[in-house]
Amino acid sequence: MENDLFKYPQRSMTLPRGIWHILAGDPDQDGDNAIEIAASSPLSWPEFTSLSGVQIMLGKDGMFRLALWGASKCCTTLLVTRRATLLVSNENGGWEIQCRVVANASLTTHQPLSGFLLMPVEYLDRRTERRSQNLTRHADEIRSALLEAFPVGNDGENAP
Fold first, then answer.
1. Nearby residues of 76 by Cβ (< 8 Å), 6 or more positions away
2. d(CA 78, CA 40)
3. What is the pLDDT of residues 22-74, one digit of tens each?
4. Within the chain, what is the greatest distance between any pair of CA atoms?
């Protein structure tokens, strides 16, 4: 794999503090965070890959370093499309971070891993305030509307 880091000298965008706490090893975090990467080639369905904390890190330069199995479908898709969306979540919601792959390399480890350098280009804040009463009422309203629009058949599975 080719390392083309030097073709992209510009600094990454500034990310919110909450993302830094989750991905930069803040000891105050409780570990209830989820990190996924979504990637899709133009001809296939989106792929979602769960990441552990050791597979991704956010450097002081604002760039993400990502390690994936070299033979994974996600790795192949990133090599072809050069873009992905990171989904970072915690108990309050989370963020969607659109990224461009600016460099890739084979990693020198005992496992066949490929490394990627991701530059964030846009993010969407999905954090919400906790309102358990409103959320329950809202969820019931949505479920009722869905069942009304698409009723369940007598067999419990197929719509009439």
1. none
2. 8
3. 776 544 554 567 889 999 877 778 889 999 888 999 988 889 999 999 999 99
4. 63
Measured between alpha carbons, how far is 50 from 87 in angstroms, rounded to an integer?
Answer: 9
Cα 97 to chain centroid distance, Å, stands at 7
Provide the edge-to-edge strand list for the sheet that holds 113-125: 47-51, 34-39, 83-90, 93-106, 113-125, 64-69, 56-58
* DSSP codes joined into one string, the chain: ----GGG--SPPPPPPHHHHHHHTT-TT--S--EEEEEE--TTS--EEEEE-TTTEEE-TTS-EEEEEETTSHHHHHHHHH-EEEEEEEETTEEEEEEEEEEEEEE--SSS-EEEEEEEEEEEEE------HHHHHHHHHHHHHHHHHHS---TTSSS--
Q: What are phi and psi of 97, to 5 degrees?
A: -120, 110
Pairing of strands 93-106, 83-90: antiparallel
pTM of the model: 0.71
pLDDT tens digits, one per residue of 94-121:
899 999 999 999 999 999 999 999 999 9
